[in-house]
Design brief:
Layout: E1 12-23, H1 26-32, E2 35-45, E3 50-56, H2 63-75, H3 85-98, H4 103-121, H5 125-129, E4 137-142, H6 152-161, E5 166-170, H7 175-188, E6 194-198, H8 205-217, E7 222-224, H9 232-239, E8 246-248, H10 256-264, E9 270-273, H11 280-293, E10 297-300, H12 306-318, E11 324-326, E12 337-338
Parallel strand pairs: 4-5, 4-11, 5-6, 6-7, 7-8, 8-9, 9-10
Antiparallel strand pairs: 1-2, 2-3, 4-12
Helix pairs in contact: 2-4, 3-4, 4-11, 6-7, 10-11, 11-12
Pfam families: MR_MLE_C, MR_MLE_N
Protein name: Mandelate racemase/muconate lactonizing enzyme C-terminal domain-containing protein
Organism: Phytoactinopolyspora alkaliphila
Amino acid sequence: MNERWRCADDVIDRIEVGSIRKPASPLNARRWGPFEYASSVEIHTAGGLRSRITGRAHVGLTDAVLGEQIRWAASTVTGRPLTEHAAIWDTLHTAVMRQYISVFALSVLDVALWDLRAQSLGLPVAALLDPGHDGSVQAYASLPIVAEPPEVRPAVRRLADAGFVGVKVHTAGDLAHDTAVLRCASDELAGGGFLAYDAAGGLCRDEAAGMAGLLQELAAQWFEEPFRQLDIAAHEWLRDRTSVPLAGVETVPGGPELVRLALGTGAFDLVCVDSYWKGGITGASATVRTATEMGRGVVMHHGASPEMDLANIHVATGLACGPVELMPATSPETAGVVTPPISVGIGLAAD
């Protein structure tokens, strides 16, 4: 057996699915409404192990819709041994590709299975990805959207003081506002730390060219999602007009296979990777390896839930592909260098 698939002999006994609703963050409220929904999956093994993982019902899905898809996927998993994890992932990935179930259903189940396998061996997940791992990974911070651009200055200072190696600005849907925020953030980072910009796929070519010129002036580390994910022609067009690295392929369906096809066009310099969009730790790890094989860099994204953020930290550390994105509060307590939890599994214990 491949070393990273090793585990103790145990069987998946039952899987419970729950629902969560909470007020949306300002960014997501603007895009999808006042509430965010999530589904939690709790897997119990015959040997007494337990893992509970939560995944946000992204891009307008409700918890009811995602929950039903997870229940269907869980029905194909119950009763199977943990030693069949790789085969389980293949089965569910096929369902994503051929039956169009949400990749998020695959992701939450996959992360739970990694958690259980690592628990069964008394190891952290990162140690399964790399048995020799003993390190930490740097983190960059995702900036909150601010009402007035100067408000970003104290936030950037606090993040830099906390050790974050860079900050990413998210579009507020107003390019004049974004431009002012980027300039303020860049001024505060003049003593060190990188700047990146996420346009959330909402620009036309002229707008993207204008923002690329600004980012080039500010020596930005990357320009994320200027266009829709699979508008390859637009990315190729912009690629020929800027030296700022283009990051994308975050939300494309299809897992590592489609990432390989997208990278083969030459339109992207960096691949956005996170365990929630890429089919769990298995899919995220495969995507990192695909990008590495093709000579592309990796941008570790946030995971949209605490458990998925932890999964990304394990991937980033185990595969040495950081820094990893975190979404700290405006007054962060989180340090900009993170180490995967040294406790077993993913590092969270179910209540």
